[in-house]
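I'd like us to work through together how a protein chain folds, taking it slowly. We need material for that, and I hope you will provide a protein of your own picking. Go ahead whenever you are ready, and we will take it from there:
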Amino acid sequence: MLIRYRLSFHKASKATSEVKYKMIDLGQADSFRYSFESSLGNKRIHLKTPIKNITWIYVSKDDFEKLHPESPLKMKEKNYSIQFSFQVRPLVFGGITVARIISYEKINRSPSIYKS
């Protein structure tokens, strides 16, 4: 499993997106990878706009807390969302590596919140 989800190419890609907040995320579309990353402490972030067929990325727990500073419902009350830049590499066997957050900022826009 480590080879499948960690062996990557050297060329990194950078992108920018907003966070799409999902209140319930069960990892239904990618349950095996979701379970693997969760066991290592990584969390999934959904992208508001898909980038090159990427609809979500996995980030470390520390990066997750930067992108989820408080409850999305409180963020909606305060009218702000998070925009961030990240870097990923393609995996040899398909998919992408765990993302590294390069920068993030609060923006004056209501967050995109979904139940599932």
